[in-house]
């Protein structure tokens, strides 16, 4: 809205004509008292909220000239019009600036350091995934007391292995979820339990890493829930890398790969948690065009 001008002051009311008085004396001192009630200036309307004191009656003394006072009515001059009060400035109209919203911190899940050391097997099974290669049956176990559903975890791993950029979609093997008589097991374990299981194979995981053992894959719960600080993606996507990397060992890829060049996709068989070395993080063995992502052999 624009500025609103303060209302103009009201004009004072002029004096009425009075009948003249004839005086017989040649000289007369005429004393005229102008009272506030007769010809007072109107109060100004102060839009700033100030209180204006009532005008004080003003006394004026006029001295008659030596010449005879003319006969006839006299005219009393009207008071000058009141000047309007200056407009009080108002704030500029327009949209008010919006307060910057506070960024809500994402709450990271709490990962227990250790657990019971015992496991629950997912009581579920599915049809084989993939159309070529050796059939490998696997079961999923989750350490007790970590508030992670064995059945839900098994279903997620099943989806990962069936992804179109994973091993099964490119003839590198067929995989089937079972609850018994498995060829290998995938375990989700707390950091302490994972360290103990990996150490039996002579592997030191320091509470951070996953490993492959004689009977299957050990997944560190910290990596499963939090992802990796070197991976540019959510934990859900990083789980694809965990399963693809460890199952890659299960299907016979015994070595690790390095970065093929700056800016290129890191191979799934690269230990990306130890650094990308110029590559872009990647969770899949194959790119979107179906080409296998490889690199120099490092171990």
Brief summary of the model shown:
The protein has 299 residues and is of the alpha/beta class. It has helices spanning 36-39, 150-161, 191-199, 221-226, 235-250; strands spanning 119-121, 135-143, 174-177, 184-189, 211-213, 216-220. The chain is built from 5 helices and 6 strands, in the order αββαββαββαα.
Mean pLDDT, rounded to whole units? 77
Examine the secondary-structure arrangement and name the CATH architecture of the domain at 119-254. 3-Layer(aba) Sandwich
Share of helix among residues? 10-25%
What would the principal axes of the Cα set say about the shape? globular
At the fold tier of CATH, the topology name of the domain at 119-254 is Collagenase (Catalytic Domain)
Low-confidence stretches: 1-77
Sketch the topology as an H/E string, one letter per element: HEEHEEHEEHH
Number of helices: 5
Biggest sheet statistics: 6 strands, mixed
User: How far do the termini sit from each other?
Assistant: 74 Å
Kindly state the number of beta strands.
6
Instruction: Give the DSSP E fraction (strand runs of 2 or more residues).
Output: 5-15%
Structural class: alpha/beta
Spell out the key features of this protein:
disordered N terminus, Collagenase (Catalytic Domain), alpha/beta, about 300 residues, six-stranded mixed beta sheet
Report on this structure:
With about 300 residues, the chain is of the alpha/beta class. The chain has a domain at about 120-255: Collagenase (Catalytic Domain) (3-Layer(aba) Sandwich), CATH 3.40.390. It has helices at about 35-40, 150-160, 190-200, 220-225, 235-250; strands at about 120, 135-145, 175, 185-190, 210-215, 215-220. The radius of gyration is 48 Å and the shape is globular. The relative contact order is 0.11.
